[in-house]
Design a protein that fits this description.
The structure is a single chain. With 112 residues, the protein is mainly beta. The protein is 0% helix and 51% strand. A hairpin with a 2-residue loop joins strand 9 (92-98) and strand 10 (101-102). It starts with a strand and ends with a strand.
Length: 112
């Protein structure tokens, strides 16, 4: 059974940091590009970041450039999203995806 399980979300104050993890099971991520998306209440799901299979190429939404970093550990079959300088506008459910599979999401809330 293929699963992507996100973790690491939570409540953080503006300016704070979180690191999200996405653990894959049932398939290996080492030959697949992986991405993070997010969906805020009342808004459409939007792209956040992408990393190629090797980890040598990354891309980011303009809104998170310089604050978020996507990385991967193929040996652990896991993808990460390090988030710093969090803003209230970053509040959303964050999803990881790869090979057309999606996780269930993890809630990130940025509020004082």
């Amino acid at each position: 059974q293929v699963q992507l399980v996100e973790s690491g979300g939570g409540l953080v104050q503006p300016g704070g940091s979180l690191r999200l993890s996405c653990a894959a099971s049932g398939f290996t991520v080492d030959n697949s590009a992986m991405s993070w998306y997010r969906q805020a209440p009342g808004k459409e799901r939007e792209f956040v970041a992408r990393i190629n299979w090797r980890g040598s190429t990354t891309s980011y939404a303009d809104s998170v450039k310089g604050r978020f970093t996507i990385s991967r550990d193929n040996a652990k079959n896991t993808v990460y999203l390090q988030m710093i300088g969090l803003k209230p506008d970053d509040t959303a459910v964050y999803y990881c995806t790869g090979k057309n599979y999606w996780g269930q999401g993890t809630q990130v809330t940025v509020s004082s």
